[in-house]
Design goal:
single chain; 1280 residues; alpha+beta; six-stranded antiparallel sheet; 27 helices; flat
Amino acid sequence: MPGHQVHVGMVHRIEVENFKSYKGRQVIGPFMNFTAVVGPNGAGKSNLMDAISFVLGVRSAHLRGSQLKDLIYALDDDDRETPNRGAHVMLVYIKSSQPASSYSGMEELQFTRAITSSGSSQYRINGSVVSWDEYNSRLRDIGILVKARNFLVFQGDVESIASKSPKELTGLFEQIAGSDELRKEYEAREADKNRAEERTMFAYQKKKNMSSEKRHKKEQKEEAERHLKLQQDLKDKRAEFYLWQLYCIEKEMNAARSALAASREELQRVQEEQRDVEKRQREKMRERAAHSKDVLTAEKKVARKAAEIDKKRPEMVKVKEEMRRAEQRLKEDVEKLEKLQALQARQHEEIARLERSLEDVQGELADMEGMSQAGGAQQLHLAQSQLEEYHKRKEEAGSKTFRLRQEKEALDRQQQADVEAQRSMEASVAQMAGREEQLGGHLEQARSRVERVGKDLTEGREALAQLRQEETEMRDRHRRARHRAEALEQRLEEAEAQLRDLKADRRENERETRMAETVATMKRLFPGVHGRLSDLCRPTQRRFNMAVTVVMGKLFDAVAVDDERTAKDCIEYLRTQRLPPMTFIPLQTARVKAVNERLRSLGGTCKLVLDVIQYDPSVEVAMVYAVGNTLVCDTLDEARSVAWGAERHKVVALDGTLLAKNGCMTGGTSGGMETRSQRWDEQEVEKLKAARDKVAKELSEVLSVREAQSKEQEIATRIAGIERKTQYAEMELRMSQEKVAKAEQELAVMAAEKDRIAPEITRLAAAVEARKEQMGAKEQRVNEITDRVFREFSRAVGVGNIREYEENQLQQAQQLAERRLALSNQIAKLANQLEYERRRDSKGPVEALQGSIEQQRGQLEELTHTGRRLQAALEKAREELQALKLPVEEAKAQAEAVEAEAQALSKAASALTAKLGKAKRTITAKEATMVQLHARRGEVLERCEMEQVTVRTAAGALIPTVPLTDTTAGGSSQAGSSSAVGSGGGGAAAELSAGVDEPLDYSSLPSSLKKEMREEERERKEAELRKEMEEVAGELERTAPNLKAVEQFEALRAREREMSEEFESIRREAKEAVNAFNHVHQQRYERFMAAFEHVSGCINRIYKDLTSSASHPLGGTAYLSLENEDEPFLHGTKYTAMPPSKRFRDMEQLSGGEKTVAALALLFAIHSYRPSPLFVLDEVDAALDNLNVAKVAAYIRAKSRHTAHASDQQTPAGRAADGSQLLADGAGGGGGGGEAGFQSIVISLKDQFYSWADGLIGVVRDSEDSCSKTLTFDLSQYAA
């Protein structure tokens, strides 16, 4: 046993009291080395196993009970409610493995576990109450591991072990090995190790950084003095450079001011001239609009008349088409009438011919009757006695030739049938030949008609497709033109209506014009300028104009810019141009409050002002800054209820009344406020004028497209005609094709019928010839017999033989009858044909067709009259259309004349605009130059201030530092925010201008820098000065130290010493943590590997013992493998079993019995590592067949402790079903080898299993007491 020595002993008996199904106190035992527990299902076998598990410390959850009280015997609910109920189980353990006969005097250990009335467990050893730890320790001493359950295999555990995953199998090994006891300590030590390593790394990095910082501070200390000297040199050079720059800028500004004044005078002159031209141009535009309206009215009349003509044209085309069809039908009916009349004439001729033929045949029949009467008198006559003799001999000959005549008559009947059939078939063939000839002619005609109609149909379809394409294209053009005209008319009306509503004649005031030009100039000069808020937004409806204007207040004309830098540039521009102040809102730095989304759902007419204006998302910050969370309501009453309700809000009514949160209400309107609210309308005036003129021009071009309608109608009429022709052609083609198909089908049928009849005719002809020979032979034989009988009679009447007499009489009668029949048939046939021709009506269709022709001629005359009338009306409408077109041309001529004058004025205005633009660009360029010069001067002064360079005025005063003024917009919802930047030509800006424009003191500037210089010389000089400063600045930047480096260096040295001590302490702690972790890791590894190596070493042998047989003496193969050999307890363990003569397969693919044998082998191998003195198995043989049951039972018997000393005993079933020797009496590797055995207690229902046991314990159900009881039976006395 591998390192786990236990006391040798065995369970002697078990005492239970009121445990589960066992009522009262019962003693179960004694237990043998191999004891089998048997009994019917439901008797309480598993409860006995639960009792053993219970007393050995297994928890109630594994004993099919949720709590301990569920394990106490109770017959019914009354028993369960009995107070002070309890139960206990006592296991008597003998410290010896001797047979039962030697139990006396052995040391006993009594393990007792009781369930108290409170539902808790009580543990006793030899009657003394002990704690669970002590109880568990004593169980461990005898080899029973409660947690690992190395002594117990519940029902179903075998299947669960076979289906365990590699990770779960590793957990089982950890329980058996005891390495799971170190898991928590392992994880804690590992966490400590990781934390210590992190702390060590962090401390090392800090130490490394501190060393680097120490070297850096030392370098800074050495450069400090050199840096201070370079600073003073750079300051002197900068003062000289900046003063020279200011001197040059002041000279340029004086020259730029003079040029700017001249350009402004020229701009004012051009503007006056442009206003005069624009006034005349507006007058011409109004006059042109009036003429355009007249042209439009006249063209509408022309269009209506053209539409009227277009409506009449299809009717005319329809009448023409009907006339053409009527003429075609009349022509066809006339041709048909001629054919019918020809057929009628042929019918009369046929009737006359048939009548003549009938008379001829009847005369011939009368002549033949006369000849037959005359010839009858010449026939031979016999006497009475001769006739009697003739009949007598006839009867005699008949009796002698009766059989031959019957045979001849049969052949004759068959011959007649075949001859008739042959004639019928030959007649059918002749008839079919005639029909084929007739169908061939018809088929040829039908095919030619199909070819001709198909060709016409193809041409018609091609023409129809081409016309439809032309029609589609024309309709698309017409539809687009019509839609375009309608849209343009609607846009023109809307533009004129809007112009009337907006009072297009309103003039802008001078201040607004000046401000708009200023903003436009700033947008050109500074890319970050977006424009005024009034230009960047627009109310969604005109009724919100006043409310939005009031809410914006002073920010109505505020300018949105990208950032504060752009705002400062604009302020500088306003100051230098002496322009009125403006407010600027920088979008990047403006601080605004978030919009309260809840205000959008207040209900009623209440809306956020932000929601009733349209703006670009890029300026949303400015809009929110201007209007904030202000609300707008339709009425003042609603505004009051919203503003001063449960929550206070800032609200404005549509009439401009503003209600503040603090209770103030501002009402009424001023002229300036109304003018502001109307500015959005004024912005649209010019756009609407331009749009109206553009729409009028496009409309005049679109209306000319209406003339295409007539052509479209003409194409539609042609398409309708071709479609009807195509329909008729398709019908004719379909009928012709059907005729061709029917003729071809009939020809095919007749050909098949001829092919079928021809062999039959040949066969019948051959049969007739053969039968003739037979009939001749029969007739010859009959004649010979008849001649012998009538020989004497023939001599008496004077004939050669009797046949001469009969043939003379009969032949004449037969020929006469045949001729009479032929003539009668011919007469009947002619009579039938004559009757058919007389009954056939050829006159009725002719008369009906003549009436139809007369009717069609009347309809054709009526259509001709209608066509003439429509043509006259159409010509009259065309004349009226031409008359209506004359005013249109005159109005167009007048409009073109006015248009020419307007174009001339437009060209003049364009020239003035170009001239004005050029002047403005010149002024803008000069203003930009001034702005740039001012900006340059300001930048120089700012740099002087930032770099502490002193600049004085000519009076000796220092240049004051004037900051840019920040102003907040009054009335804004964002009052108190510092994001809006204000500037202008007055106030603080005026002070700034006064301070900056004051002459400076240039006395300290060298005379070499004051002399006049060309641009190239100035640039070269500036480059030299900059180079000198850059050299000094570069040197200064390269040597610029930290002036506090000495103090910082000393402090850093002290911190370094502390850090070194801390680092050594942390490193020692990390080393201790690693050593502790390695120690626990090694312990856990050694415990796990000891169990694994033991089980892995014996698993194959045990599996071979359980699977070997006569046919497979070597048995199967089983082995264990680790997924990770360095840390096996953290990864999976793979168990592989290969039954005999089977290839490798996963455990899941084995059969139920194969899985059970593999699982039992693993259980036995695990039990051999931590052996317990007993091994309890509950129905582990459920999935095994008889052969495997016997093998497992033999193995268990062999492992039972005392079987090793009874090798001479014969087992009850010495051989397995296949004849192989079973593992009994210690034979084989599983029964000997020096391994410790164990006491086996097995629950089984199979006699093949429990027949191997040393003793039986039978469990029965006592129906009287309603409980389980046991019986013990010793089988060892029956051993051979």
